[in-house]
Amino acid sequence: MVFEVNGTSQTLTLDNRTTVLDALREHLGLIGAKKGCDHGQCGSCTVLLDGRRVKSCLVFAVTVDGRSVVTVEGLAEPGELSPLQAAFIAHDAFQCGYCTPGQLCSARGMLDEVAQGWPSAVTGDLDAPAELTDAEIRERMAGNLCRCAAYPHIVAAVRETAAGGRAAAR
Q1: pLDDT block averages, 10 residues each, the chain of length 170
Q2: CA torsion angle for 58, 60, 64, 65 (degrees, to 10)?
Q3: Is the pTM here over 0.85, yes or no?
């Protein structure tokens, strides 16, 4: 199979039972996405598949042939931080850090969904652009768990990035 990972074409020969998560970690050495629950419940393995958030432990690698995957390692240029990563640091939006790669990929995907006008379960006016309130951010990030409970900091980092705040300007 051939697919793009963080802008680079990758060719792998894999067992058809191999997940995207295992292909990334075990075959490509990209260890940012974490194996938390291995059941799609925690979100630690979240990556972007063709720009959409997916839990990579639930997706068979053979299904991404010809497609594009972005991991936490691909969110910024080497040696730099993306505005979202800078905001996570500025707001101390992680503690142990285990869930952080999945949180970052999910937040990037969520911000792109908002920019495209996608509503969530708590979006009030479906005809107006979504306003990223704390409740809206929490709902959209609900698929990513943090055992350290850094949620208020994660929400603040996402809100600041969406608003183009000081961390986003870095």
Answers
A1: 98 97 98 96 98 98 98 95 96 94 98 94 89 94 95 96 66
A2: 180
A3: yes
